[in-house]
Specification:
Elements lengths: L2 H10 L4 E5 L3 H15 L2 E6 L3 E4 L14 H7 L10 E6 L8 H17 L1 E7 L13 E4 L5 H11 L10 H11 L4 H15 L4 H15 L2 E4 L12 H10 L14 E5 L6 H12 L3 E4 L1 H4 L6 H16 L2 E5 L2 H5 L11 H15 L4 E7 L17 E4 L5 H15 L15 H14 L3 H4 L6 H4 L1 H11 L4 E2 L8 H7 L13
Parallel strand pairs: 1-5, 1-6, 2-4, 4-5, 8-11, 8-12, 9-10, 10-11, 12-13
Antiparallel strand pairs: 2-3, 7-9
Helix pairs in contact: 1-2, 3-4, 5-7, 6-8, 7-8, 12-14, 15-16
Length: 499
């Protein structure tokens, strides 16, 4: 439903307090004014700069009251008419609702509004309703523009036929880049694209979108060049995700992919895989900083969560990376000493994972599943829970070849003993060999594998994953015994080991 349709519904049902959360006041006011003209309602708008302005024949009959918020609310009674409804729109009024005088004036007017058919509409970018008025306000979210409206905006900016792409695939790429932008941001991005390139191109819109996400610090748009070719092994995991996200002529909500949860010791490629997944499937990758969601003020965390998830939904077709999830949600089972903030954050995230209808593929990673509440990993939260074990012989061979080529090292030189190495440690060895001008065997003396520094935790993780997770390295369910047979201890061509 549009903002105008929801407003009509709530006014008809006599909800005298309506809080509209919107970052686009001009567009919201246009829709509100349109409804008022259609229904022959009286409309007054107040802001701190212009004071109270009344539309139509009532203009000049009600004192403006200047920038006094109390005077604006009290003036609503003078607009009351038994034959018609009257709306007072208060712009950015969340800045004035902390005082008891404003709260009680609002409460008095909201109660009288039932009889007078007068309605108070607060237009604000945030929802900040005082506890005394929570039961008297209904909240409406002014949604981001859809693809049809974005197409209208783009065509309105592109005045020449060649400015707007004619190829359907190019149009789809342009509108995908514009998804998640406000109307004002979409107009600005299209204007910048015309100025810079002489036509509308997705790259400029992606640039503006990246800047938009940086403003709140909750989400980051990753635009790296990682691909699956940069990852050795993990073939079953790659195949699963590519098959789940393959383009389809028709896709319904029942079969829409949800996401994956990746579990492994540090350095096994979880984050790199998630970043490469977006490029392989033609989807932008958003990175959610769960730690940044935690606010210092009461209610700020919950507001941050809602804002972040709303932005993700507005992006539409994308990959959402939530990295090292257990570090942010480890207190969700209680005892965190944060007055239940982590629990509420966790509950909101769980609900969204199960119920969101946007085409968002969620890729979560964790190093310690035991710190996450058990309900997080139940069926239908994710399409699959994969365990990425330390790479076996075949995977290590592929990883060595990848990084030897990347760093320009001699591929014929002896390799160190790497049975318990992760991909990150193989990369570190190659980088050190290049940086220090050493052989791989000598460079390996500076590498201490995580399988040794955190041996106990790695073994606990393997034990938990055995029989519970899909294997990212071999088809089917992960099992410690079967995985152990994949890897044999390799001695490096007569060279000394790094043990």
């Amino acid at each position: 439903m549009t903002l105008a349709e929801r407003l009509l519904e709530y006014v008809s049902a006599c909800f005298t307090g309506i809080w509209i959360q919107s970052h686009e006041h001009a567009d919201a006011l246009t829709e509100i004014a349109s409804v008022c003209r259609q229904e022959n309602w009286r409309l007054a708008v107040w802001d701190v700069v212009q004071g109270l302005s009344v539309a139509g024949a009532d203009a000049g009959t009600v004192p403006s009251g200047g920038g006094d918020p109390l005077a604006a609310v009290q003036a609503l009674g003078q607009l009351a008419d038994p034959q018609s409804s009257a709306l007072l729109v208060l712009r950015n009024f969340h800045r004035f609702v902390s005082g008891i005088d404003v709260v009680q004036t609002l409460e008095y007017q909201l109660n009288r509004g039932k009889d007078q058919r007068t309605f108070i509409v607060v237009l604000s970018p945030v929802v900040n309703i005082p506890v005394e008025l929570e039961k008297q306000f209904v909240v409406i979210e002014h949604e981001f523009p859809g693809r049809n409206q974005l197409a209208e905006i783009a065509r309105g900016i592109a005045t020449q036929p060649d400015d707007f792409p004619q190829d359907p695939a190019e149009q789809d790429a342009l509108l995908e880049a514009a998804s998640g932008l406000t109307r004002f941001e979409a107009e600005s991005a299209c204007s910048l694209s015309l100025t810079r390139h002489g036509r509308l191109v997705p790259e400029t819109l992606w640039e503006l979108k990246s800047q938009m996400l940086k403003k709140n610090g909750l989400l980051t748009l990753h635009r790296g060049g990682e691909t699956f070719a940069d990852l050795g092994g993990l073939e079953p995991l790659k195949s699963f995700c590519l098959r789940a996200l393959r383009p389809r002529a028709q896709r319904d909500l029942l079969t829409q992919p949800r996401g994956i949860l990746l579990l492994s010791p540090p350095g096994c490629g979880k984050s790199q895989f998630c970043k490469a997944l977006g490029n392989e499937t033609g989807r932008p990758t958003l990175i959610l900083d769960v730690g940044a969601l935690m606010g210092s003020l009461v209610g700020q965390t919950e507001q941050n969560v809602r804002q972040a998830l709303k932005s993700v939904d507005a992006m539409g077709r994308c990959v959402l990376l939530i990295d090292e999830l257990e570090k942010a949600l480890s207190g969700a089972s209680g005892g965190a000493g944060d007055s239940g903030v982590t629990t509420r954050l966790f509950g909101t995230l769980l609900t969204w994972l199960s119920e969101h209808e946007s085409d968002v593929f969620v890729a979560c990673s964790a190093n310690d599943i035991s710190k996450l509440p058990p309900e997080f990993s139940r069926a239908e939260r994710f399409d699959g829970i994969f365990f990425l074990d330390l790479p076996a012989d075949r995977e290590r061979t592929a990883i060595w070849k990848l990084y030897l080529d990347k760093f320009g090292l001699d591929a014929k030189q002896p390799l160190p003993v790497d049975t318990d190495w992760t991909g990150a440690e193989i990369r570190s060895c190659c980088r050190l060999a290049k940086m220090l001008e050493l052989s791989l065997v000598d460079a390996a003396k500076n590498v201490v594998p995580v399988a040794r520094t955190a041996h106990e935790s790695v073994e606990r993780l393997r034990q938990w994953a055995s029989g519970r997770c899909l294997s990212a390295n071999t088809p089917g369910i992960y099992g410690r015994e079967a995985n152990a047979m994949r890897s044999t201890r390799r001695v490096s061509r007569g060279e000394p080991t790094n043990n």
